[in-house]
Amino acid sequence: MTLALPTVRARKRRRIRRLGRLPLTFLVGGLILAASLVLALVPQLFAPYDPIAMDYNAILSPPSWAHPFGTDSFGRDVLSRVISAYSIDMQIAIFATTGPLIVGTIVGALVGYAGGLTETLFGRIVDAVISFPFLVLVIAIVAVLGPGLGNMYIAVGVIDWVFYGRLVAAEVAVQKRLDYADAGRAMGYTPARIIFRHLLPNAITPAIVYWMTDMALAILLGSSLGYLGLGAQPPAAEWGVQIADGKNFMSTAWWISVFPGIAIVVTGLGFSLFGDGLAELLRTKK
Amino acid sequence: MSALAKTHLEPALSVSNLTTVFQTAAGAVTAVDSVSFDVMPGQVLGLVGESGSGKSVTLRSLMRLVHAPGKVSGRVLWQGRDLLSLSPGALRKVRGGEIAMIFQEPTTALNPVLPVRIQIEENLRAHTALNGRERRARAIELLELVGIPAAERRLDDYPHQFSGGMKQRVMIAIALASDPKLLLADEPTTALDVTIQDQILKLILDLRDEFAMSVVFVTHDLGVVAGTCDRMAVMYAGRIVETGSVRQVFAEPHHPYTRGLLGSVPRGGAERTMLTSIDGTPPSLSAIPPGCAFNPRCDFATERCRAERPALEPFAAGRTVACFHHARVAATGAPA
Fold it and tell me: Is B287 a domain residue?
């Protein structure tokens, strides 16, 4: 026990040193995402105005000190709306993808472990789903269920899990043939234990990395549906809705659409960079 | 030889007509062909053969660890029960609890993302009624038993923080956690360097005595067999071609293949002579020659060997061989 103290200290030191070796993409992406999350959780601390308050004395006013991003056709402050939209759009990113991640991972792990006919059957389902353009399929489902965020999550969830399922199934199918899986079987562990305790932690990396990309895609999808009037409903502040609000004024009041557009790009970039960095980090660890 | 091996008890493990067939696109491949052998309590049996002779598949077939499309048939009697027809639940109790297995590559046989403590305790959780504190204590005890220094501090280390030899020790500690009565060792020292190899072999033998285990040792290394095993079975192209006590087989090989294997190993103490090699290569399992599988490489082969497959038959106490000309082979003596 006398040796424990220096070891703990050495480990802490090593951990700090490791922070400096993190991939740049991971740090930059992480910073953007952290900022986005803060804006999503407490937008009222940063938004200078009420995002849905209309000011008929300041309609379509260009960026100024009072309204840094200008105002829209109802006189609403674009900056406040862009900031408030973080709540909805980050919610879309997380809610639309987490369910598919969990369901797809579990199904994929079981399918990959079972192999054989189950895996073939699952492969055909995946083929059937991915042969449709994702957006078209989601729009079709939303059209049936009716517009709104809740129905959008359902529509995305119904389709999106197969992508995670495919990634995890492929990786588990590889891992289950490695010696440590056989060692687990030779030790008399149950299939459930081998799948979820042993194989999954070794097989989940691609799914986690894809999750980051998927969140960026979810924001794009969410704002696309918002733009089309199938996602978040006006007057809610959502980037896609805002871009739609500005589309008739593009030549005279570009700021209504451009600033939400930039927010989409920056947030999407944050997820992509973070995902890249994460992939690099998890790869080098192996 | 241990004292136990000499007493004539019931065999701990009795394998008969074990056959493993892989259905492939190119047709059925028989990797293990009607293999039969017994292992007595406390005995160390060496399964010897070249790569691809089916020795590892034999070991995996015993534990029903063969992956699809492999099909195992035959009988594996373990304490009165046939492992090949046991229900999955009953099989899980035997695996790890009564029969343990260690693998060739300790680097791949340990789960890279779990600390070794969890991997040891997991076996204890599956096969014993120990509580959390007792499991931890047992894990330390096991790591000490297999010779890992500062065992307590290394409990929470990950496999990659151990060297190859230490990893194999960890693997052995995991395998032995629940006091198995039979240890299946699949070339446990092949991936290790020679000095470490010797330590691991000594460790396995010590543990054999301590736990009163039987051991089935798969290896291609005759030196390992000579140093550790009581009995040996030589495999060629999926079949056992010769069995006997290690001393008898080394002194007087009756199968030309065994003779060739022994001739290809340098021996200390003897006059320095040229090492001989066996001409040709082992046959592909999908194209085993008719008759005796060894006939194209055999100096003793006759027409009969090319037409008819010799059965594995006893010719002296405790010895069996599958060769029509074994008397001639034995009379010729060791290869020049």
Answer: yes
Q: Rounded CA gap, A160 and A129, in Å?
A: 9
Residues of the domain holding B314: 251-266+275-336
The DSSP symbol for A197 reads: I
In-domain check, residue B139: no
Task: Determine contact, residues B19/B72, Cβ cutoff 8 Å.
Answer: yes
Tens of pLDDT, residue by residue over B15-67, are 999 999 998 888 888 999 999 999 999 999 999 988 888 899 999 999 999 98
Residue B33 maps to a domain: no
The total domain count for chain B is 1
Of B67, B92, B109, the CB nearest to A183: B109
Smallest CA–CA separation between B140 and chain A, in Å? 14
Q: List the single best residue of B113, B156, B157 to mutate versus A (max A Cβ within 10 A).
A: B113
When CB atoms are compared, the residue of A4, A184, A202 closest to B113 is A202
Q: How many CB atoms lie within 10 A of CB A107?
A: 18
CA distance B115 to A75: 60
Chain A residues whose beta carbon lies within 8 Å of the beta carbon of residue B91: 188
pLDDT means per 10 residues, chain A with 286 residues, are 54 63 89 96 92 88 91 92 95 94 96 93 92 88 90 92 95 91 91 93 92 94 92 90 93 94 96 92 68
User: Do residue A197 and residue B127 have CB atoms under 8 angstroms apart?
Assistant: no
B264 touches chain A (CB under 8 A): no
- The per-residue pLDDT of chain A, averaged, comes to 90
The band of B284, judged by pLDDT with boundaries at 50, 70 and 90, is: confident
pTM of this structure: 0.81
pLDDT of residue A2: 45
- Cβ of B65 within 8 Å of Cβ of A182? The answer is yes
The amino acid present at A283, given as its one-letter code, is R
pLDDT at residue A7, as a whole number: 60
**Domain assignment of residue B73, yes or no:** no
Cα of A116 to nearest chain B Cα, Å: 9
**Token pair of A5, please?**
């103290």
Task: Write the CA distances from B242 to A99, A245, B185, B260, integer angstroms.
Answer: 60, 86, 20, 13
